[in-house]
Amino acid sequence: MTATAERPTTIFRRPSATTGIWSWITTVDHKRIGIMYGYAAFAFFIIGGVEALLLRVQLATANSEFLTAGAYNALFTMHGTTMIFLFVMPASAAFMNYLLPLMIGARDVAFPRLNALSWWIFFFGGIFLYSTFIFGTALAPMGADGIGGNLAAGGGPGALNFLADAPNGGWFGYQPNAGPLYSMGTALDYWALGLQILGLASLVSSVNFLVTVFNMRAKGLRLLRMPVFAWMSTVVAFLLLFSLPIIAVALFMVTFDRQFGSLFFAPVGGGDPILWQHLFWLFGHPEVYILILPAMGMVSEILPTFSRKPLFGYSAVVFAGAAIAFLGFGVWAHHMFASGITPVAQAAFGLSTMTIAIPTGIKIFNWIGTMWQGRIRLTTPMLFAIGFVAMFTIGGLSGVTHSVVPSDWQQTDTYYIVAHFHYVLFGGAIFGLFGGLYYWFPKLTGRVMSDRLGKVHFWLMFIGFNLTFGPMHWLGLQGMVRRTWKYAPETGLQPWNTAVTVGAFIIATSIAVFMFNWWNSKRRGEASGLDPWDARTIEWMSPNPTPEYNFAVPPVVTSLDHFWHLKYDQDDEGRAVRKPDGDEIVAAIEHQQLNPTSPIHLPNPSYFPVMFALGIPIIFYGIIYHQNLWAKAMILVGAVIALVAVIGWAMEPLEEPHGHGHAGDDSGYSGSRPGAEGMSDG
Amino acid sequence: MRSVRHRVARITGIAGVMLLLAACAGADKEPLTTFDPKGPFSERINNLFWPVFWIAVGVFVLVEAAILVTVFLYRDRKGSREAKQIHGSPKLEVVWTVIPALILAGIAVPTTAAVFDLTTCGADAMEIDVLGHQWWFEFQYPEEGIDTANVMVIPAGKEVCAQMTSADVIHNFWVPALNGKRYLIPGQTTELRIEADAPGEFWGHCAEFCGLSHSLMRVRVQALSQSDYDAWVANQQQEAAVPAEGTPEWDGLQVYLTKGCTQCHMMDFQDGNSAGIADNVVQAPAFHGPPLTHFASRNVFAGATLPGEGQTREDALRQWLSDPPNTKPGSFMPNLALTEQEIDVLTAWLDSNK
Lengths: 682, 354
Description:
The complex is a heterodimer of chains A (682) and B (354). Chain A is mainly α. Chain A has helices at residues 2-6, 8-11, 21-25, 30-59, 69-103, 112-130, 132-135, 187-215, 228-260, 273-307, 314-327, 343-371, 380-403, 405-411, 415-445, 451-477, 494-524, 562-567, 582-594, 608-624, 629-651, 676-679; strands at residues 142-143, 146-147, 447-448, 526-527, 568-570, 576-578. In chain A, the strands form three sheets. In chain A, strands 1-2 form a two-stranded antiparallel ribbon. In chain A, strands 3-4 form a two-stranded antiparallel ribbon. Chain A has a two-stranded antiparallel ribbon with strand order 5-6. In chain A, helix 10 packs across helix 15 (415-445). The longest helix of chain A is centred in the first third of the chain and has 35 residues, at 69-103. Chain B is built from eight helices and ten strands. Chain B has helices at residues 2-20, 40-74, 90-119, 226-237, 248-258, 313-322, 324-327, 340-350, and strands at 126-133, 136-141, 146-149, 151-155, 160-166, 171-174, 182-184, 190-194, 200-206, 218-224. In chain B, 42% of the residues are buried. At the A-B interface, helix 5, strand 1, helix 10, helix 11 and helix 12 of A face helix 2, helix 3 and strand 9 of B.
C-alpha cells in the first residue's frame, strides 16, 4: 500500500463542483449544510403539522369516526417524534450551523467534513424513520384482521386507515406496550432505530460545535463576549453530549428486546418497564432544554437589537442558561409522579423541578429589562421575540404547577400537559425559531423579508396558537386524557375541542402566509445591505448574502456587541450616539469583507461524509429484517460502505491543486488554535 | 383556622372556575372534572391547587403587564431618543432570584407535606385489588371473595386502599373526583387511596397510553351507603342461578356454554344445580374477560364505555355482542358471528345475572 500513501491524490480525488446538485451533496460549507438542515426541518414541520391537523379533525367532535384508532395512535406518535427530532432539533441545528461560525468570527466549524456527516446522518435518519409508512407494519395481539393482525388492514371506518402502518407507541415509547409482546410488526423497530440514527447525527454535531466554540473564536472574542446564541448553542452541545448516550443505550435495549428477545423491559422475563421510563426521561427532560435553549439564544439576540440596548444582565442570562441545563438532568422523574415512586423521590423531584423556575425567571426578567427604557422597534422578528417571552412565561408557570406533586397527580397525562409543553415548545421554541428566520433571512439572501406579511403571519399565528393551546389547559383539568382517540359526548368536552381545532387551522393558515413571504422575499425582497437592523454582533460584519469565506478579514473583537461599538459612542447620559462617520465605517467594513486581498483557504468538499452516512441506514434496515439472509447481507453491505468511507476519509488529501488555494489570511486567528489548514482535518 | 382556610380555598376555587370559563361547569356536565372533589384526598389536592394557581395568575399578570407596559412606553416614536446603554443591575438580579425562590419555598412546604400524607394508606383502610387489562379494570375484594369489573363499588366514608397491578401493559387508574392518578404496572404493585364522602357515581379513565383502545378504557366508582354496600356484597357473594329449561335465559346460557364465551368469561354457578353445570374457571387468569356472574349488577360494560349517551342498555348490548372489535378496536373478544336470535337470548341471560 505504499503507492497509496505516496500519491493519494490519484486514488481519492476530492470533488470540485461549486454549483449543481453534486456541489450540495459534497459540500462541507457550514452555511450550505445549515440551509439544507433548515429546508429539511421545515419540510418535516409541514408533515408533522398535517399530522396534527388530522388529529384535530378527529377530536373536533365527540366519538368521531374520521380516523381509526390505529391511524390516530400512529399519527400522534409520529407528530411528536417528527416535531421534536425532525423539526425543532434540526431547525436549531440549521441556525447553529449557519450562525455559530459567523458569530465567533470563524470561516467554518472545526471539522467541516464531520459537520457534513451529521447532516447526512440526520437526513438519512429522517428518511429511514418515515420509510415506515412504506415498509413498516403495525400488528397488534388482536389487529383489525384477527390475532396478530395488521392495524392498517380493512374493517376500519376511516379512509386514512393506511396511516396505521406506522410507529404507534407514542414518542415516549412506553414499555412494555411498545415492546415485542404488545406491538408486533416492524413499525416500532423503524422508530427505535430511526431515533438511534438521528441521535447519532446530533451527537456528532455536538462534539463538532464544542470544539469549534472552544478553539476557533476570533481574536479577542473571550467566552463572555460571545453572543448569547453562541452561548446557548454551546450549552445545548453539552446537553446533547451528555443526554444522547442515555437514549442510545435505552433504544438499543428496546431493539434488543424487539429483535433478539432480551426482555430488558418485559416483566415476564424479570425485566422492569419503569426502567425504560427512567432512562427515557433522563434523556427526555434535558431534551426539552435542547429544544428551547437555542430559541432562548435567538431571542436574546433579537431583543437587544430592536430595543437598541445591550442585553440586560448578559452574564446572568448566560449563567441562567447553563444552570437550566445543569438542573435539567435532575428533574426527570417529574414525568413519573403517577408511577408509584416513593414519596421521598416524589418530594425530591418536585423540589428540584421548582428550582428550574428560578433561572428561567431570571431570563424572563432580564429580557423585559432589556426592553425597558429601550427604543423598541416592533419589526416582525421583534414581535416574535416578544411573543416568545409572553407565551413562554405561561408555559413556565404551568410548569410550576406540575412541581406541586399532588396537583400533578391530577394533571399528568391530561391535555393540561399537552397545553403546557406546547406553550413551551410552540409558544417558546417555534416563536423563537420564526423570529430567528425573519431576523437572519438577510444573511441568507441579501434581502429582507416583507414586514407587512410578517406581521400578518405573526398575528395569525399568535391568535391561532392561543386558541389551539389555551383551551387545552381547561380540557385537561376537565378530565380529558392525552392520546385519546375518542371522547364521550357526556364528558362535555366537545365545545372547546371544536375551538381548538379551529385554532389549529388558523396556525396552518399563518404558516401558508409565511411560506409565501419566504418565497416572495427571496426573489423580490428589499436589498438588505450589510446591516439591515443596525445590529450589535459580529455576524453582521460579514456581507449579505454571506460569502463562502464568511470574513475576508476575521474581526478582532474588543468588546461584547463589538459591531455596535464600532458604530456607536455614548454621550454623558449613557445614551447611544452614532459616530459621525458611522455610515462610512459600515461601508468600509462591507468593502473590506467583500474584497479579500489574498486567496482564502477553505475546506474542500468531500464525497465521504455522505457515503459514510448512507451506510448507516442500510445496516439498520438489515437489522430490522435480520432473520432473512438478504438482510444479513445488507448489514454487511452497509458496513462495507461505511468502512470504505472511513478509509477514504482518512486517506483523503487535504486539498486539490484546483481547489480554493491555500494562502489563507489567518491574521484573525490567534496562534494557539489550529489555523485554516487544520480545518480540513475534520 | 382550618375552616377559614378551607373556605378561602373554596371561594378562590369557585372564582377561578368562573375566571377560566364563562360557561357553567360542574360534575353534571363534565363528569371527569378535577374541580369538583368528592372525597378527602381529591379535596386536599384541590386545596393545594388553587393557592398555587392564584400565585401563578399573579406572576402571570405582573409579567405580561410588564411586557405590555414596556412595549407601550418605550416603543420607537417620532422624537424618541436613543436608549441609555444599561448593561444590567446586580441588585435587580438578586431581587428577581430571591423573590421567586422564596415563593417556591412557600409552595414547597405544603406540597411536600401533602405528598407524604396522601401516599400512605391508612391503617384501617379496606383493600381492593385492581388489575389492569387491555382495556378494562378488574376489581377483586380479597376479604369478601368478590371479583368484578368496570365498576368499583365502595362504601362511602370509608378509605379504600387499592392494591394495583397490571396483567399486560402499564395502565393508569384515575377517578378525578376521588384522587389523582396511579400507574398499574405489570410485575409490581402500587397503592392508591380512594375515599368518597357520600354515595354517588364517579367517572374515571385509564390515563396512560396502553395500546389501541386506550381511549375506550374507562371506569366508574360507585360509592354506596354502608347498608347498601353490605347488601351489594351479600348479593355479589351469591352464585348465579341456572335458569329453567325452555326459557330464553336458558337458551342464552347455551350460547354462553357453546359459542366460546367460556374461554375467557368466568361464571360461578350454584353448586349442585339441577342442570349439572359446573363453575367456569378460566385457565389463564391474566388473559381473561370480565367475570359475568353478576354482569347485570353493573350499569356499564365494555370498559365502562357502553351504554353510550342516549343508548338503551339493550341496544348497547346488541351492539357489543354483534361485533366487539368494531366497537372497541383490538378487543380481545372476537366477533363471534352470533345470529340475531342468539344475541336476543344471550342478552336475556346476561341481564338475568343480577
